[in-house]
Structures are given as structure tokens and as C-alpha cells.
Amino acid sequence: MHPVRRKRLIVIVFILAGAAVTATLVLSALEENINLFYPPEQVAGGEAPVGKRIRVGGMVLEGSVQRASDSLEVGFVLTDRRGSDVGVRYSGILPDLFREGQGILVTGELDQAGVFQADEVLAKHDENYMPPELIQADIR
Amino acid sequence: MKQRLKELWHQLGSPRWFYQISGRWPVWLLALGLILIAAGWVWGLAYAPPDYQQGNSFRIMYVHVPASMLAQSCYILLGVAGAVLLIWRMKLADMVVAVAAPIGVGFVALSLVTGVLWGKPTWLQASDRWWVWDARTTSMLVLLFLYFGIIALRQAIARPESAGRACAVLAVVGLINIPIIKYSVDWWLTLHQPASFTLTEKPAMPAEMWLPLLVSALGFYVFFAGAMTVALRTEILRREQRTQWVRDLAGVLTR
After folding, report:
1. Residue A6 to residue B155: CA distance in whole angstroms
2. Which of B51, B169, B188 comes nearest A129 by C-beta?
3. d(CA B122, nearest CA chain A) in Å
4. What's the rounded mean pLDDT across residues B180-206?
5. Which residues contact residue B200 at a Cβ distance below 8 angstroms, ignoring those fewer than 6 apart?
6. Nearest to residue B98, comparing CAs of B174, B139, B153?
């Protein structure tokens, strides 16, 4: 390679490396803020602020969903399946994808008793796609 | 082989050479691309099975995933062409940066719009909002603004040579965003699901679902190559309009 071009190449590599280091530092400093939600572990561990609008995400614990018979009130537990759980209360319509074992994101406030008062429920879906017949065959 | 590659590299330094060899490329590339896209979409939208959870709404993936792939691949092309321009001062590389940016905008826009349309009935069905600022959606929006920035920068600088170099530097620096988009779903907690396809593991869906996606994605790449060739040929003529070969081509008589 021609020396002038080699020099330019080195300059570009340095620019890229500098940009990469800057981006890494900025992003790692902002890490907590880039995470969209608190996992149950942080909420149970007292790391999530009380009385502030936050998001919590986890899996709906099987058998934990309790619906009121006369209102849209619903209670359920979000779990990380590693021993940390958060109780959630919500009043409103749930998304179609809401079901036991499903990944769910709730927006709202954590009250003094450690119960999450949600006013919005978002459904997460995973990266797996499957025709319905195959799932039924799996269950059988 | 090495000698041939070296020769090809030198020939790429001549926009005229590229113009002359690429005359019939657009027809074939655009036609083949459109056929593949049509086949992938009909297959995916009408014949692939529905998803057990999302039903039919997952089918927008046959547009969303290829559009997102192209949005990023086109940016990588922009960054590489920018580096080639800065190192070798190759005219054709500058033209690639100039014409690929608006095409890339189209793919990011398609990716974002289909993403919103997919997210609304799945993630946000019980919510008023249409958009969530997670790491994936935000980094993709940053990609759109990077494209806008590169287009605007070229307009803002009067001297074409300086404009080209400034755009090239921005394109190269912006490459940092590509791994951020790719790994955003692994590095941070996001609403967007992780990748269904990796190099090391088998796809997270059966072949009857991913085959149409593969066909559609191939079609997007071929169509992109065709669109790039058309745009590049136009750009070559525009920039070389004062040269003898273009005048001869246009039948313009010179005194």
C-alpha cells in the first residue's frame, strides 16, 4: 500500500476506535437509563424507586392471575423464575397476548406495600414463531 | 486471481468504465429482485402458517425483517464507501455515498413504519401509544437521522469535494451505530424480542416460516443492487457531463 494511503487508513482506524470508545463509555454510563424496565429482581431488592412512574417487566406467574367478577380489576404476579416476584394490580383491558407464562411489561407506580399499581400493560413476545398445530402436537 | 482483483480495483477508479459495463444490469437486477420479493411475499402472506401466539399479525415480518436488514446493510455500504473515498480518493466511492443515502432512508422508513404497525396490535394493544423508546427502536431511529445528516451535510457544503469528504467521515463514524442496533436487544432490557436468526443456532421458527423470509430478503438485496446501479449511472452522467465521453454519448457536438 502507498505510504500516503496507509497513513489515511491509520487515521480512519483511529477515528473509528475513538468513536467506539466514546460510544462505549457513554452507553455504559447510561446503562440504567437505557434499560426499558426494571426486572423483578431489582424491584424485590428495593432498587426500584417507590412512588415514581416506572416500568417493570417479567413473566406472568402460572396460577397467579385473579380477576374481579364485577370489574376489570385484575391482580397477578410478575416473576423472573429465579426467585424474585412482584405483585401487580391493574384495572383495564388486557392485551390478547396476556396469558400465564407470557412476558409482560407494566407501567405504573410501586406503592409503600411493595405492590405495583399498573395503569398500562404491554405484551412482550419472544423470538420464537410456531404454527398452532405444532404447538398442540408439542403439548400432546 | 490477485492480479485480476487488482486490475478490477483500478478499473473501479473510472466511472466511465463502470458506466459502460453496467448498461444491462438494472433491468435484470430490478426484474429478478421484484420477482423474488413478490414470490416471498405471496408465500409468506398467503401460504406460510400463522403463529400460535400472534396469529396473522406476525406476517408483517416478511416486510419488516428484510427492510431492517437492508437499512443496515445499506449503511455499512455507505461507511465502507466513505472509507474508500477517504483513503483512495475514488470518485465512484463518493458517488456511492451520495446515491445510497436516499435509498437507505427508504428502507429505514419502511422498517420503522412496519415496526410500528406490528407493535401496535401485539405489544401496545391495550395502550394508547404507538411507539416505545426501547434500545432497539431508538437506535433504529438514530440510523434514520444519520442518513438524514449525511444527505443534509452534502447540501450544506458548497464545494463538492469537501462535501464528499465530510459526508464520508460522518458515514464512517456512524458505523458505530450498526453493532449498537444489532446487539441492543442483548445488551439492554428491551420490549423488542432478541434475534430469531443467529449464525450458531438453528432458526427459532420452522422452515415453512423462514424460507419465504429468505426469498423476500434475497429479493430486497437484489432489488437494492438494481436501484443502486440505476442511481449510480445517473449520478455518473450528471457529474461527468462536461467530459468528452458523456458528450459523445449524448450526441452533443463540441466546437
Report:
1. 30
2. B51
3. 7
4. 92
5. none
6. B153
Distance of CA A82 to the CA centre of its chain: 15
Q: For cell 478490477, what's the residue?
A: B8
Q: What is the pLDDT of residue B1?
A: 82
Write out chain A residues lying below 8 Å of B175, CB-based. 16
Residue B218 C-alpha cell reads as: 434475497
CB < 8 Å to B60, chain A: none
Mean pLDDT of chain A: 91
Nearest residue of chain B to residue A4 (CA atoms):
B87
Residue A4: C-alpha distances to residues A1, A11, B145 (Å): 8, 11, 33
Mutate to test the interface with B, among A8, A37, A129, A139 (most CBs of B within 10 A): A129
Top pLDDT among B222 and B10 is at: B222
Is this prediction's pTM over 0.90? yes
Closest alpha carbon to B29 in B217, B224, B214, B234: B224
Residue with cell 477515528: A15
Residues B73 and B80: beta-carbon distance below 8 Å = no
- Taking CB atoms and an 8 Å cut-off, how many pairs form between chains A and B? 116
Note the pLDDT of residue A132: 86
Alpha-carbon distance of A34 to B53, in angstroms, equals: 28
Spacing of C-alpha A49 from chain mean position: 16
Per residue in A81-98, pLDDT tens?
988 999 999 999 999 999
Cβ(B97)–Cβ(B150) below 8 Å: yes
- The ipTM of this complex is 0.90
Q: Is A87 helix (H, G, I), strand (E, B) or coil?
A: strand
For residue A119, pLDDT over 90 is answered with: yes
* CA–CA dist A6, B123 (Å, integer): 50
